[in-house]
Write a structure and sequence with these properties.
Blueprint: E1 4-7, E2 14-17, E3 19-21, H1 34-46, E4 51-55, H2 62-70, E5 80-85, E6 87-89, E7 95-98, H3 102-116, E8 121-126, H4 135-148, E9 151-157, H5 161-168, E10 173-179, H6 191-198, E11 201-205, H7 234-242, H8 245-250, H9 255-264, E12 270-275, H10 279-286, H11 293-302, H12 315-319
Parallel strand pairs: 3-4, 3-12, 4-5, 5-8, 8-9, 9-10, 10-11, 11-12
Antiparallel strand pairs: 1-2, 6-7
Length: 325
């Protein structure tokens, strides 16, 4: 198959679309055998995929070690590594806050380079805004790492329009990683227009709403705490997504492929990042469906903006998101 190639913003690297989100390979939605995780990454790369998205806190470093293992016999030049940093975990795995101080960032980066077994990462970004650290300080420090060759490009994640502007005034930002899907469309108000004005791409995660769209329905890992999967919300949302089945069947596609196609159709500056936990799911991810304007309009009628029930994160996590302010 031939995958689409997109540049992340005006200044970023060329990547294949969709990208592979690797978080689910480190226990986020239930256990995954490491051998199967390696096979998933290999299946994506063998099909021509290039963009691997990870975070140093995925599995408390496990995800980076897994990617290193998968890349042992691969050319570094064939892979674009996008890495998030700053989220703090306790020994029990619980998230305990953010740390985006310049000194902390350099420490996080040093450990990521070691775990990944590389001399640079292609895109480096704070996972969330640290309320105690001006974004100018964080981005300025990453820019120093760009100058030293340890980082190629600077990204952002889950920040609002004002923060995006402040960051872009310090150094070029290639992309914003943020949740964007049929069920999560708030970025269309101010965040997406701001990114387009500034030439910043979007790497969209949560495209399948953590499996709510086209998933197995099994509750495990992070889904257990997600309001959209909880009683009262789940039934409404599953009925909402079910409206897509007839259209998907008419296109010989799955509901998941339809949802990925919808995000892809929103613009060449948007690259979906989708997870896979089994090799067979990689094919679903990559065998895309092309949607025209009429198709997109039909999907918007079936699943109107704002029709989802429940927040995308628990209340405390939502309150901490700069992108939700």
């Amino acid at each position: 198959m031939t995958l689409d190639i997109h540049r992340l913003g005006r200044t970023g690297p060329e990547v294949t679309s969709p990208g592979l989100g690797c978080m689910g390979l480190s226990g986020a939605y239930g256990s995954v055998d490491d051998d199967e995780g390696v096979r998933v990454i290999h299946a994506y790369l063998d099909a021509g995929g290039t963009l691997l998205d990870t975070g140093d806190f995925y599995g408390s470093g496990h995800n980076e070690w897994l990617i290193r293992r998968a890349l042992t016999d691969r050319s570094r030049d064939d892979v674009v590594l996008s890495v998030k940093f700053g989220a703090l975990r306790g020994p029990d795995g619980a998230l305990t806050g953010q740390d985006a101080r310049p000194a902390a960032m350099k420490n996080f980066l040093a450990y990521s380079l070691q775990r990944l077994g590389v001399d640079h990462v292609d895109v480096y970004r704070p996972a969330r805004l640290d309320p105690g650290v001006p974004i100018e300080d964080t981005v300025g420090a990453i820019a120093e790492m760009v100058e030293k060759g340890f980082v190629r490009h600077i990204g952002l994640s889950e920040v609002g329009a004002e923060t995006i502007r402040r960051a872009a005034a310090v150094a070029p930002i290639c992309d914003l990683q943020i949740e964007y899907s049929l069920l999560s469309r708030d970025i269309e108000d101010t965040i997406l227009p701001t990114c387009r004005e500034l030439g910043i791409g979007i790497t969209a995660y949560g495209v399948l709403s953590r499996g709510l769209i086209g998933g197995s329905g099994v509750l495990a890992g992070g889904r257990l705490a997600t309001p959209r999967f909880q009683d009262g919300h789940r039934e409404h949302n599953e009925a909402l997504v079910a409206r897509l089945r007839d259209m998907a069947e008419a296109k010989s596609a799955s509901v998941a492929q339809l949802a990925i196609g919808w995000v892809t159709a929103q613009g060449d500056d948007i690259v979906p990042v989708v997870g896979a936990r089994r090799v067979d799911q990689v094919g679903t991810l990559l065998d895309g469906v092309t949607l025209d304007a009429d198709d997109v309009a039909r999907i918007d009628q079936l699943v109107p903006r704002g029709s989802v029930s429940g927040d995308r994160y628990p209340a405390a996590a939502m309150a901490a998101l700069d992108s939700e302010r």
